[in-house]
Amino acid sequence: MTDFFKGIPAIKYEGPDSSNEFAFRHYNPDEIVMGKRMEDQMRFAVAYWHSFAWPGGDPFGGQTFERPWFGDSMDLARLKADVAFEMFDILGVPFYCFHDADARPEGATFAESLKNLNDIADYLEAKQAKHKTQLLWGTANMFSHRRWMSGAATNPDPDVYAYAAANVKANMDVTKRLGGQNYVLWGGREGYETLLNTDLKAERAHAGRFLQQVVEYKHKIGFKGAILIEPKPQEPSKHQYDYDVATVYGFLKEFGLEKEVQVNIEQGHAILAGHSFEHEIALASALGIFGSIDMNRNDYQSGWDTDQFPNNHAEKAVAFYEILRAGGYTTGGTNFDAKVRRQSLDAEDLILAHVGGMDTCARALKAAAALLEDGSLEKARDERYAGWKTPAAQAMLKGGLEAAAARVTAEGLEPQPKSGRQERLENLWNRFV
Which of 3, 131, 196, 399 has a CB 3.0–4.6 Å from the CB of 403, allowing a cystine? Predict the structure, then answer.
């Protein structure tokens, strides 16, 4: 045991009237929501990077956090894991997620970094054997080190591509060994800053072949989890090749991977792409590539990805409605890709940020489930499109343009606009949230 969280109790459900800040008011793991325990519906995960590796910097200032595990030794990496699992136990979360660079120190060579990764994987494997919390997904950090400044799979230097392949192979091996249920590829530098020095066609081709190689290796080693791409439009690059769900789907189709790869959708990234979170989830579901989510929020007055913990259940309820409509998670989950503010220095802040985020999501889930079970919204949607279920409408889709056009004169069609009833449906929505 460490003493970092000394005096902080395990968080228990006490109900909405509780005044205990170290308690859940809405997240009750055993409550049944649409036929499943809430814990199994939510599948919460803690992000290793923001919670235990982030030093509190921002674009205008450096480190504000002083954590006892900060440093580049394996002893400190093991201490970080000790603290992490203590927090997992306090929160009772079923999952965590990590990049390799979060968990192990960077070595002077690839061989040294690989040894550090495998050694810390041994330590994490032993931790998982004694604790409830397991690995939701692993990934490789291929954006922080200076070698990745021009990308990983899209780098103009083939040696960097090879280094990226070695990194991903190592991390897929570790993810499989730790029982990870997914493997995520987040292309933090897979884009460009100017077309003046970029061969866009070549970079996209290399990125496509890299992803094909990842899928081939998945099957070779018998990894049963999902391969996930996390879309992001910009920041740090001017343009990134995985801009949004629609762009990723087109990319997957181009390289024959639409049946092999799904998406991990982040709230903050959706906003940066000019979309809503629920739009990205609904589109991924419609395209058959929905996998998992990174839960956070942006500061809407700031033009960058601030990774704040969610605190607006009404906003999140729309996203969870789409997740429930899609049938819920399979291997995915609700990962808090969120960080406390750089002024929130205390251990209690780290715990309470997650408590608030979990309660916000639980309240959102219950509202979404109640509306879905009520059926009024789905009934209204079905009624709006009911005309398409008629034999004439279906025949029109199967025939040619002339046959569709002929209906106008043959049936004397003079279609009149019908109300979309948006305000009425918004009022319905607000009754539940």
Answer: 399
